[in-house]
Structure to design on (336 residues):
């Protein structure tokens, strides 16, 4: 897991040399034929990547994006009206029937279908009209790392080319260097809090919320910690009842309009006795963990999860576990 996570900068650099014309053509197609609706199709870590891509599309292009409950197609056989829609599937393996079948359904119904998939020869790649390989290379660890990061980058490329934003696309080109720098950050302070932990809340908001979702999943997968992700806007509702002295909270305060509120939340939770790990850029004095930054705040979640992955692999080992062999899990999950 650690080796593959640290290879992300190289894999992103490779991806950025590929499919340039395809992304540009797809962006031009979407501008010329604006979709009637936009849907994402994904599971697990890939769904968290889809959440990030959806946020970019909504924030930068103003198009509302929904996550498809795949059982509507695979089990309910619902008569969805998909003509002129855009369906974006994200997958590492491209094997799961509940991702492949909806894409075939959408394509047959007249939607524009895009697969961001690591296996370019997979059933998902064959089902979609537009296939954009992730170029993550073989991923042997059950816990996805470099395939998740390359999925985030692919989603950002799609949004950037659709918007035709040269400055954003230029910032994406700078990601390999930023990702490498992220692997060098010292998050050992988190180990002191998390090695004995049995549960944790992971908090983000806005564009950082997908990172909270992914981090919570990795805590469960690789360290057997009962982890839940919450938006900083939601934690003061029901979840607040769980906070007690020493309760660990990891808060991702990436740059952007949500950052100030997350920093204030960290202060309030400390006042309630929580053991807060505030991850923020180095200009935030109250931080416990330093977040790397990218060429623009909209890309900061990509470098943030890179720093987290290094710590997550170290945490699993420190807890006496093997992050490469999470119990009860396999690399490819096939559901209908």
């Amino acid at each position: 897991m650690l080796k593959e996570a640290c290879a992300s900068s190289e894999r992103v650099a490779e991806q950025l040399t590929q499919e340039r014309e395809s992304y540009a053509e797809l962006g031009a197609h979407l501008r010329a034929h604006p979709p009637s609706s936009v849907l994402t199709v994904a599971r697990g870590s890939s769904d968290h990547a889809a959440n990030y891509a959806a946020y970019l599309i909504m924030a930068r292009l103003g198009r509302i994006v929904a996550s498809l409950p795949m059982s509507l197609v695979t089990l309910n056989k619902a008569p969805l009206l998909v003509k002129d829609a855009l369906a974006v599937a994200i997958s590492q393996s491209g094997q799961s029937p509940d991702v492949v079948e909806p894409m075939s359904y959408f394509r047959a119904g007249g939607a524009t279908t895009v697969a961001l998939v690591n296996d370019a020869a997979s059933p998902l790649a064959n089902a979609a009209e537009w296939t954009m390989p992730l170029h993550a290379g073989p991923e042997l660890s059950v816990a996805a790392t470099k395939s998740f990061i390359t999925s985030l980058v692919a989603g950002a490329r799609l949004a950037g080319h659709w918007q035709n934003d040269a400055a954003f696309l230029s910032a994406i080109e700078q990601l390999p260097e930023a990702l490498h720098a992220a692997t060098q950050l010292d998050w050992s302070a988190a180990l002191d809090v998390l090695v004995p932990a049995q549960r944790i809340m992971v908090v983000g908001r806005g564009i950082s919320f997908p990172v909270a979702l992914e981090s919570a999943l990795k805590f469960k997968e690789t360290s057997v910690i009962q982890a839940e992700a919450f938006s900083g806007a939601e934690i003061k509702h029901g979840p607040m009842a769980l906070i007690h002295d020493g309760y660990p909270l990891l808060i991702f305060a990436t740059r952007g309009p949500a950052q100030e509120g997350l920093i204030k939340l960290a202060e309030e939770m400390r006042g309630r006795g929580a053991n807060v790990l505030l991850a923020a850029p180095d200009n935030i004095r109250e931080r416990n963990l330093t977040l790397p930054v990218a060429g623009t705040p909209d890309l900061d979640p990509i470098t943030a999860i890179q720093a987290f992955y290094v710590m997550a692999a170290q945490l699993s080992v420190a807890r006496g576990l093997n992050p490469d062999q999470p119990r009860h899990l396999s690399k490819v999950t096939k559901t209908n």
Q: What stands out?
A: The chain is about 45% helix and 15% strand. The first helix runs from residue 2 to 6.
